[in-house]
Fold:
Amino acid sequence: MEEKWESNVRKVIPYVAGEQPKNRDVIKLNTNECPYPPAPGVEKLAAQMDVDALRLYPNTNADALVEVLAEYYHVSPEQVFVGVGSDDVLATSFLTFFNGGKPIFFPDVTYSFYDVWADLYHIPYETKALDENWKINPGDYRQPNGGVIFPNPNAPTGVFEPLEKVEEIIKANRDVVVIVDEAYVDFGGVSAISLLEKYDNLLVVQTFSKSRSMAGLRIGFCIGSKKLIKYLNDVKFSINSYTMNRPAQVLGVEAVRDDAYFKATTAKVVNTRERSKKELEKLGFTFPDSKTNFIFASHKTVPAKKIFEALRERNIFVRYWDKPRISNSLRITVGTDAEMDALFAALREILPEA
Ligand code: PMP
Structure:
């Protein structure tokens, strides 16, 4: 029975994150983390951490991190905003920019947090169906709307849309804010950051969680026009001045500085991904071409749910959603070569001989 006071409660159906098993022995290919450690300098700095400084509040703007990101991406520090993972940056962006009466648009198959934030903040939304190849139809984004958001590459499909298509969507939506969520762009996509010179209503969101191996530290950021970033800061400083903790600010800077390690790590993941595509094909899987650190695969004869459960029994975790359009697909994070070999060996046991 609902108590009287419950009628005043903001009720939401929350996002369900991928499982984080307590047991570290599992092969964890379910939440798109990087299988390699953070840059060596990060480990060194973490060991020398000034614990006494934790008495003090951190810098409210994360200035050092903002500056190193601005330098890296050739923009001004006033164009950079950082948050506690890109989920924080995205949630703050929904609250800040999607405040009109018209529905915001995003793809029907996409990051499953978007509809949660929309519901949380009472933002009307409409989803636009991806085509049979999991591609966006830019024509769908030409109707009046209250804002547009899509990941590029998309999740969970892994499909990358060329910048020309991204620009076509922005051009058709100059009266609203367009957010491109580039959580996976470092694994072979092309960033829309280069379009920022032309479009002051474009916001590009990225994260340290995947390509920079720092999901546990929670660092996300976005780059946009000075005006967009000012509006974001106004909302952030209306909720919590100290979003980013001290260790994250210090270690994040170090991660950006070691560009050679970043490039080497992402290249390793890309190599393993390309090899994994060939192996999965041999095992009877089909999938859209991925430019991310995961592969969205369906088997030609065996249902995804069955494979998901059989892998789980063998302590191999992949991601499965019992949702329209994607209930026969598995999202498999690209792990190390050894982890992927263990996956293929398990699949050879589970699947009927081709
Ligand atoms: N965007 C997309 C498309 C994602 O898949 C994720 C990871 N769940 C995020 C944003 C958020 O990642 P984080 O908060 O770790 O930066």
